[in-house]
Amino acid sequence: MRVVLIGVAVVLLATACGTSRTGTTGPGDTTTPAPGASELTAQVLSFDAAGTAPGKYAALSDEPIRLDAFAGWYGGAGSFDEEPEDDTAKPGSVYLAATDSTGCRTPESVRVTREGDDLRVAFEGGQDHPECVRAVGPVAYLALPADETDGVTTVNGKPLLDAAGPGKLTNFVPLGTIKAHPAAAELPDRGTLRAQLAGAGVDMTKVDAVLKGQVPAGQRRFAFLVSGCQATGAVLLLAHQEIDVALTGEKTACIAPEYFFATFTAAGEDVPEQAKLAPR
Fold first, then answer.
1. Alpha-carbon radius of gyration of the chain
2. What is the domain extent for residue 178?
């Protein structure tokens, strides 16, 4: 559900029956804006009050954010299995994805204030239970007025993260409607990926330099042959058990599937220890 909030408070929780509560009072409210802080208006795009984030992570972007890619910062890509409802950037808006860990309390609202070049995101409301099966890690995704966020460099005192997650797209090569099967490899092990490319008649000069390149110390590099429809980019999806890829900017339909060669580099420490490449 998409809700536009009028006024200066940023608060929303969409419940299962489609209603929402506005306001900032409740048993879990513990924050008060600092003197001189200003509250921001916002359009709430999604609010997962019972999410799985392990702490405070935040990204601010001029373009809509894919939450599954952003959640790769904490191995949470698998928590989001739906495509974005609307990935068209709105004039005059920026996009904020922010998380927190609230212990055994499932918050009922989120407040965003600004103090200097720092945004403060507070998840408020909800009952603070003495125990729970797992810690609650809410995730909020908001559209904010660009003129109210100009110059922001931190969220909750921490530097902004890359909205696309820890995976850096280093190569994206459209290969057309070749006859192939999706494949993936962690470089420098090229495995079946190169065989698929060569067997499909791909000009290997386009990809061999990448496949044979050295992986920098402390980094991990992943390569994918993936099919789609007129995609314009890709993101790396990092979950605790799986490493996968998703195309971005795709069209809804095309005459025949097209293939793309995409590679990513990520710091080794940002890749979940138990994660393996998703089966193709």
1. 21
2. 168-277
Q: Are residues 101 and 214 in the same domain?
A: no
Instruction: Name the pTM for this structure.
Output: 0.85
Low-confidence stretches of the chain (pLDDT < 50) are 1-27, 29
Q: What is the pLDDT of residues 78-133, one digit of tens each?
A: 998 766 566 788 899 999 999 999 999 999 999 999 999 999 999 999 998 889 99
The tally of CA atoms less than 13 A away on the side-chain side of residue 192 is: 8
Paired with 225 in beta bridges are: 183, 261
β-sheet with 43-48: strand ranges across: 3-4, 43-48, 139-145, 93-99, 58-61
CB 152 within 8 A of CB 118: yes
Of how many residues is the chain composed? 280
pLDDT of residue 259: 95
What's the first-to-final CA gap in the chain, in angstroms? Answer: 33
CB-count burial class (<10 Å; 0-12, 13-18, 19+) for 196: buried
Structure tokens at 148: 């109210």
Report residue 10 as tokens.
């940023």
Burial 9-29 (b: 16+ CB within 10 A, else e): bbbbbbeeeeebeeebeeebb
Of the residues 94, 129, 159, the one at which a domain ends: 159
Counting the structural domains of the chain, the total is: 2
Which three-class secondary structure state does DSSP give residue 195? helix
CA–CA distance, 261 with 259 (Å, rounded to integer) = 7
